[in-house]
Design goal:
This protein is mainly alpha-helical. The protein has one domain (3-181): Rhomboid-like (Rhomboid-like fold), CATH 1.20.1540.10. The chain has helices at 7-26, 47-50, 58-79, 81-102, 110-123, 138-152, 161-178. Helix 3 packs across helix 5 (110-123) and helix 4 runs antiparallel to helix 7 (161-178). It is globular.
């Protein structure tokens, strides 16, 4: 798959890597103005978007950027650049609003990652691309159950379960809106 067919995916990857490398080289304090912070409520308006490009731990950026590249490229090809950008920005915004409404802080592309993942796997619910040839719809279903249980049982409190679910909701809402304009992946 050529990079020219997925410019938003590669732009998000480049921005996220630049912010990550800046944090690694100059220290996390150098990028704190980009995060949604529970200590600094209300936020600067732009942090509702910029937090989505901030990662400070290697595993975090590896997981989010891996999802972006493995699934995001396909979603961008299906939707086209403009609709894909709308999906990403709305899901990051929804995740940021979930953080602010809960009075908590957060970073990372996970809200958009959930939107991309839910969008793709629910766009092709009966395809069997999961291990054991399970139908695609089972992954979003399992992630929803796990996220809700994590909230109720207070598992992994440092994980942004609310932003994940907010991003997922955006993916689910936009699927019927954008479905009519899906592109053929053979293009």
């Amino acid at each position: 798959m050529k990079n020219s067919k997925t410019p938003v995916t590669w732009l998000v990857f480049a921005i996220s890597m630049l912010v990550f490398l800046t944090a690694r080289i100059r220290g996390t304090e150098s990028i704190m103005f980009l995060v949604v912070s529970a200590d600094k409520m209300p936020q600067s308006w732009y942090t509702l978007i910029t937090y989505g490009f901030v990662h400070v731990e290697f595993y975090h950026i590896l997981l989010n950027m891996g999802l972006l590249i493995m699934i995001g490229r396909w979603v961008e090809r299906i939707l086209g650049t403009q609709r894909y950008l709308i999906l990403i920005l709305l899901s990051i915004l929804a995740g940021g609003l979930a953080l602010v409404l809960r009075g908590s802080g957060g970073i990372g592309f996970s809200a958009a990652g959930f939107a991309i993942l839910y969008y793709y796997y629910l766009a092709f619910p009966w395809a069997k691309e999961l291990p054991l040839k399970l139908p695609n719809f089972l992954l979003p279903l399992a992630l929803t159950i796990i996220s809700v249980l994590a909230i109720v049982l207070e598992w992994l409190p440092s994980v942004g379960h609310y932003p994940h679910l907010a991003g997922a909701v955006i993916g689910v809402i936009l699927l019927p809106v954008f479905r009519k304009s899906h592109r053929d992946l053979a293009d």
